[in-house]
Every structure is written in C-alpha cells, then in structure tokens.
Amino acid sequence: MGAIHVIGAGVEGQEGFGRRALDLIEQASLLIGSARQLELFPDFAGETLELGADLSPMLRALQQHAGDAVVLASGDPLFFGVGRYLLRNLPETELEFVPNVCSVQYAFAKIRQPWDDAIFVSAAGRGVASAVDQVVAHDKVAVLTDEANTPQMIATELIERGRDGYAVYLCENLGMADELITHTDLKGLLKLETAPLNVLILIKEYEAGGDGVGPCLGIPDEDFATVKKLITREEVRAVSLAKLRLRHDMTLWDIGAGSGSVSIEADHLLPNGRVFAIERNPQCLAYFKDNLRKFNSRNITLVSEEAPACLEALPDPDRVFIGGSGGHLWEILSSVDGRLPTGGRIVLNAATLDTLTAATEFFENAGYALEVSTINVSRTRPLTDYKMFEAFNPVFVMMAVKE
User: What distance, in Å, lies between the first and last C-alpha atoms of the chain?
Assistant: First the structure.
C-alpha cells in the first residue's frame, strides 16, 4: 500500500483545487471519488474507482494498491466526510488530508453570516428526530440532509414541536450553474421543492416565537398557560427539582407533563442534557406548545402519547419525574424501573393518599431508598384589605433512589 492522499473537492469544480492538490492527483496511480468528482479529471491516466454507498470496495482497493492513491472527498474530508471511515479502517500514518472549502462554510459565506458560533448536524442516515433535538438546543444550526431526511421533514418536526421561530436559508446546488439561495421561514420551507444537494441553515429569532422570556427557576404559576390551573405549583416545583439532583448532561423523563412547568424549569438545569415530556391530553399539549415558545425552551422533546407504552422508544433516563399517571401508576413504575440505572432517581408528586400508598408499596418491594416530604403551601391573597393566607392542598413529594 502506497501513500493515500484524501483531497477535498471545493464547490468550484477543478478551479477550486490548489496547486499541491492537483500535483498529488497527477502523480497518483489510483483515483477514487464520486462520479461527479471523477468527471473533473477526464484525462487522468491511472486507474479510477467510482464511490457508491458501500465504501468497502474503496477500502479493498486502497489496501491492495501498491502505488500512491488519491481519494476525492467533498470539501473537508474530516467534516461529515469519508475521512472518519478511513481513519477507522486504515493506519492514520498512511493517510494525509488536504482540506478544501466545505459546503457549509461556502453556504454561510453566501448568506453573509458568521459561522464560528454555529453547530453542524447531519440528518443523513441518522433520522430527523435526533437532528431536530440538536436544532432546538442551539441558536444557529447547519443541517446536512439527504433524500430520506429532507428539509421539509425537518421543518415539519420543528413545527409539530412548537418551534417555529427560525429564519431559514435553503442553499441548493452550491457552486453549480443552478445554485439557489432561498431565505424563508419554516412554513415557507414546506412549500418549496428541494434539490438533493443542499445545506439547510436555521437561525433562531426569539421574537418570532413568543415574548422572549428565558427559562429560570421560580417561574410564577400565572406565567404558564395551563388547563384550569392544573399545574405543579412553584414551591412544589422547586422542591421536586432539588430532589431530582439534575446534572447538566442528564436525560430526564417528565411523565404526565401537563402544561410543561417542570420540564421548562428542568431545561434550564440541563444545558447539555435532554428532557422528554410525556403528555397525552390534547388540551394540555396545546398549552405545552405555547409555553415552549414563550420560554424559548431548547432541550425538550414533547411526546404526545400514553405512558408506559411510549417509553420503550425513548433513550434510557438518568432521572424521572412523575406528575401524573393516568391510572397506570404501577405499570409506569415497572417500566421505569427496568430502564433506570443504579443510582438513578425517581421523584413522584402524589396529591392523594391512594397514590402515596401505592407508590410506597412499589418502591419498598423494588428495593429503592425512599424519602417522602409533605409540602403544605399557603400564600397571601393579593388585592385584599387584609393579609390572609390561602392554603393549597398538600402534596407528597416522593424521592426514590434505585439501589
């Protein structure tokens, strides 16, 4: 096996290659690339191999070839490119990388936006849901799509999650004669026909999705849109979140999320984590989406299905909050117990003695370390002549640690 040079092809055709890159291609006896890339070198004198979806023929050819070889990649070979595959399968000392301007870099230049504060997501072969999880967690995102995971699917998922406050730049066929840059919004993106070769850039515009209120601890109850004030009250929320002991990178399940008050405050404590909010009530879902927009929450995925059936599709949790069970408490706790790691925590808010008794029985039988706090909240009534306290029903905050 000779030297292997992995050379990035820019967006400007052969004119985009530097002098050294052209010299390496001329000296090589094997040239590997896509059909479009190989067409840039019709006079290449050596052997050529066209790349397809299966990269194993390329690997065999490189291992068996005695002379120098060049692998043509798109832009920077180490940016969502073939470079990662080659490094996994060949000695790194045999590889030299010659980067070029990548499509994302070129796209940001065309829309006249800095890109040092952007993150980059590939939906190609990874699915829309995981890509959108990253989009909602950041302000500026470039998404590489494919024919199975299209820009329209990204837009649909964002709109369904109530995250429609993005400026959209669809950058198609970059560097080609039919290059097209379209500035629109998510709803406008749904109406467009999209070329297979594209870069989708999404930039959050907070004013487009609500009043710009940022998430924080201690949000007043009245700030949340909710059904008949069915909400985990501010004081109970504070205790529940403290009992969860959230770390910045944890995964939290919020089962029976209601209008999202716990999820939204937890989101502030999980800048690098994820919150999966499970709620089946259509009325609550509408209010939840309103609250997501209002508080610009980022790491929350709304799951509009019934627990415990929907839990199987979610990633394993580090922490679980249960605000409601819909009459399936034992089944939900059994499902959670099978997924929670040792040392994981469940915090359950019980408003009735029936729930308290049933949950206590489960935790004791399952070997959890259990602590129960009773939270009695009374508040002064505003706009009255006398400062009198109004009492709310007590809530039992159960904290169970899996041992």
Answer: 54
Coil, strand or helix: which one is 72? strand
Contact 197, 236 (CB under 8 A): no
CATH 3.40.1190.10 for domain 221-402 = no
pLDDT value at position 207?
Answer: 42
Enumerate the CATH 3.40.1010.10 domain ranges in the chain, comma separated. 4-101
Q: Are 4 and 71 in contact (CB under 8 A)?
A: yes
Superfamily of domain 4-101 in the CATH hierarchy: Tetrapyrrole methylase, N-terminal domain (3.40.1010.10)
pLDDT of residue 293: 79
Q: How far apart are CA 170 and CA 202, in angstroms?
A: 9
Alpha-carbon gap, residue 292 to 154, rounded angstroms: 18
At 221 the pLDDT is 84
Percent of the chain with pLDDT over 90: 65
- How do residues 203-232 score in pLDDT, each as one tens digit? 988 544 444 455 567 888 888 888 876 788
- For the chain, the C-alpha Rg in angstroms (whole number) is 27
In terms of CATH architecture, what is 104-209? 2-Layer Sandwich (3.30)
Task: Report DSSP letters for 171-206, one per residue.
Answer: EESTTSTT-EEEEEEHHHHTT----SSEEEEEEE-G
Which regions in the chain score pLDDT beneath 70? Answer: 12-15, 206-216, 229, 383-384
